[in-house]
Specification:
Helix content is about 0%, strand content about 50%. The chain is mostly beta strands. The strands form five sheets. Strands 2-5-8-11-13-15-18-21 form an eight-stranded parallel β-sheet, with no helix packed on it. The radius of gyration is 18 Å and the shape is elongated.
């Protein structure tokens, strides 16, 4: 059965250790917070509170058109959709795909790339992607491939990437609507 859960402001921090599961309405009102360890939720998400995702969470079938709060992805993969356009999505240690809103990567965050899928972005939005001045990009294994880190409607780079930590012999570039990690390849000369 579909159920509704309302988190009023006087509850303060509420932690859901297991997962967001099922359908119904999840309302996170102002000054309330919910932390979820993962799951699949296909109901309505409303309110202006804070939702923190610490595990892989599929919200791609959820209706977040009534949510104007703060969604923080702290771990795992968050599958979102274009209805997450009113609130702010902040990535701090996980990755998010499918959102139509502004995605902000936190200062000092780490983005780990999947070496088995170099062409699949770990951050994806049709809106803005705002990148910090301090960021670590890591590989989840050994690879000589180039990678798509992010795909966005518009990528907003910091004034300087001097405080970015990248894998050895790599650099980043923006090409079209993608942020890419590319290998520095040496020049080879052949003589006859």
């Amino acid at each position: 059965a579909d159920r509704s859960l309302v988190l009023p402001y006087h509850f303060g921090q509420i932690t859901l250790a297991q997962a967001l599961q099922g359908k119904g309405t999840l309302e996170i009102v102002r000054d309330s917070a919910l932390t979820s360890g993962g799951g699949t939720f296909a109901g309505a998400l409303v309110g202006s509170g804070r939702l923190t995702l610490t595990g892989s969470t599929d919200l791609s079938a959820a209706d977040a058109s009534g949510f104007s709060g703060y969604l923080e992805v702290k771990g795992g993969a968050a599958k979102l959709n274009s209805t997450f356009a009113k609130g702010q999505v902040v990535v701090n240690g996980g990755f998010a795909t499918g959102t139509g809103s502004e995605v902000v990567v936190e200062e000092g965050a780490t983005i780990t790339l999947d070496v088995t899928q170099p062409a699949k972005p770990v951050l994806s939005t049709t809106g803005y992607l705002v990148l910090p001045s301090a960021l670590t990009i890591a590989l989840g294994g050994e690879s000589d491939d180039d990678f798509v880190i992010a795909s966005a409607g518009r990528i907003l780079m910091p004034a300087s990437t001097a405080n970015w930590t990248l894998p050895e012999d790599c650099r980043v570039r923006v090409r079209g609507n993608e942020l890419q990690l590319v290998r520095r390849r040496g020049l080879m000369l052949f003589f006859r």
